[in-house]
Amino acid sequence: MMLMKASYFIFRRMLRDYIGMAILLLLPIALISVLALIADGAVSEPLGIPMMDEVAVTMVFAFIMFGGFYTMEYVRGDLMSSMKWRIYSLPYGIHNHAYAILISCSLFNVLQSLLVVFYTIFVYNVNWGNLGIVFFIILLVTAVIQLVFINFVLGVKKYKTAERLGTGFGLACLMLGEVWFPLPDGPFFSFLSTYSNPFSLGQNMIFATITGENIEKAIISLVIFIALALVLAITAVYFGRRKLI
Amino acid sequence: MAIVHMKDIVKRYSSHIVLDNIDLDIAYGEILGLLGPNGAGKTTLIHALAGIHGFDSGAIEVFGKEQKANLLEIKRQIGLVTQEITLFTDLTAKENLAFFGGVYGLKGEKLKKRIDETLEFVGLSEHARKLPAKFSGGMKRRLNIACALVHRPKFLIMDEPTVGIDPQSRNHILETIRQLNQQGTTILYTTHYIEEIQNLASRVVIMDQGHIIANGTIDELVKKIQYEEKIKLEVAAPTDDLLERLRKLDGVKQVLKNEKEIHIISQVESGNLDRVLSIAREFGGIHSISAEKPTLEDVFLTLTGKRLRDGGEEE
Contact B207/B36 with Cβ under 8 angstroms? Predict the structure, then answer.
């Protein structure tokens, strides 16, 4: 019950974070709008879907890769600054607050992503397939990303280092997902671009939902995601116990 | 009867002893002033008391129950006003109280009522729906206190609650503390402002380097260091005859002249004030006379060798 209450208040705080909103909601919408002018009517060769659909999926998942900064910022603000003394004095486990941050940041990031998804549906008629499955995939990817970032902030000594790791992680995901340039040919690079990062794994699942093809790839991605989430949750608990008194 | 009983508390950070065999009782209904220079161990003591962290040896009882780190049952009855302003700046004053009240188990109408009462108590009712970012320093401090009061704790720990605010807000806060105490709240109060302790505390504990070096009422502590009293006299004509007559008084140790001012230092409780007055009258007009007694500041300086506001704010 307390977890729900705390999550509610953190969610409320996030609604007033206008910078985060601008970066993770307005910026992707703006970029999609610009790229839509370029992608106008084109078809993505390997997938056989409109280029606009691929742009939309890529943009949504690209920004999800950086959504973990929310978790990082709230963990720092509430549990690693002077605020921690107030939180620690409360009759409420610190881990509860950390979970509340994780839950609300994940849901908020999901909400932002879904708003972008709806924007692409209503404005550009993008076909996302089954929206229930899209919601589930976005939720899963978002949760894993928040866990990655919470590991960064709890696992390293300096917050600045965690920030750099977060930025590096996001950029590495996009690079491995071949957003800017294709990776060299060969089975190793093909594996890297398909299964090595949350961005590609998320895309695999969404493209399978849109096209109804490559279901096997999507299932493997799902299994990797679940395994990854479990491992990250365990390491987050370990780092949390070490860092948060 | 004691609300807090600390016995032989030792707390170390690696090889550094921060609390060294601390014994301390806090009685129900008192305001205990905790003084100490930076690094004395005050904040560590407070954190151990509030159950924020444990200690290496000894025992703490709060409300007759053994205190350990993160014991929720005891934490529910304690309020901690932190040294820094610890508010959610992106929640309104009312929402801040709703969050903290909720954590302490308040809900529904009871929570609403408590929020309204607490905001009224600290004088922030009109600002309930504003974000603390728009508050003055004094208002933030008051909200900081309100967050620790919303659940009506029986024992309130205040760690320098008036740092960096204007005199008007300070007075408001001090009055709030007096009222809380009158309503039965036991308060542990630390500050760098000695006058606040003089105004509020029924008893004072002075810490230095992890030890309690003095414990008693202000009068008791002053008596401990009071070896002499000083009378300051300003006269129209401080002649040598006058000085000689004063020197001959019983118990007078020293008479010093500084232009029209005469400083007479006597043994403690010599009762020389009346005699000084009558002699001075014989020699003409008295412009002013005052008897100076040691203050709490003098006690602190004598015992610790430091002024209270030396150095930084933090331990």
Answer: yes
